UniProtKB/TrEMBL annotation:
InterPro entries attached to this UniProt entry: AB_hydrolase_fold, UPF0227/Esterase_YqiA
Name recorded for this polypeptide: Esterase YqiA
Positions in coiled-coil regions: none
Chain segments annotated as transmembrane: none
Superkingdom in the source lineage: Bacteria
Length: 189
């Protein structure tokens, strides 16, 4: 059975809107694909360890999709596991972006409380794919109206990937539900 690994963003969960939309799409149109959408650990090294363990345990073909920080993780999966990835309004430099968020955090979906530290920013910098050789297997879905991330960073970083750039929108990627079937086709699942 093919698997879609969906990776949520910072302080999010498997109950995020995009994860729910993908789950509903697969249940309705592609029940032959298993969705794996874990609650990722709050800290980077622990999250990557969790993601790598999931990837190592998958038997059949799989693809990965991720939004925001999940896009950062999906890029790393594509690079290290040779699979296709779809990244939605991805965080290209989360070690820079999240430096403004250091301190006490609470995940609004799970209620988990933790402290984001400078060490976590160092972990993100270390885990970043600095020179990706996997861009021919990545599809960037980006909206210019993203209020959290500068869309130009993603356009530069993913410039050799398949790119879909839209005017307007926001960080949630308005209209994501219209892309579910195309995402599955791109991932060749």
């Amino acid at each position: 059975m093919a698997t879609l690994l969906y990776l949520h963003g910072f302080n999010s969960s498997p109950n995020s809107i995009k994860a729910r939309l993908m789950r509903e799409h697969l249940a309705r149109h592609r029940p032959d694909i298993e969705l794996v959408c874990p609650q990722l650990a709050a800290t980077p090294a622990a999250a990557w360890s969790q993601i790598a363990a999931i990837c190592d345990g998958l038997d059949g073909p799989f693809g990965v999709a991720g939004s925001s920080l999940g896009g950062f993780w999906a890029t790393r999966v594509a690079q290290l596991y040779g699979v296709r990835a779809v990244v939605v309004n991805p965080a290209v430099n989360p070690h820079v972006l999240l430096a403004d968020w250091l301190g006490e955090q609470e995940n609004p979906y799970t209620g988990e409380r933790y402290t984001l530290t400078g060490q976590h920013m160092a972990e993100l910098a270390e885990l970043r794919v600095n020179e990706p050789s996997c861009l021919d297997r990545i599809w960037l879905l980006q909206q210019q109206g993203d209020e959290v991330l500068d869309y130009r960073e993603a356009l530069d970083y993913y410039r050799f990937a398949r790119v879909c750039i839209q005017k307007g929108g926001d960080h949630s990627f308005i209209g994501f539900e219209h892309y579910c079937a195309q995402i599955i086709r791109f991932l060749q699942l």
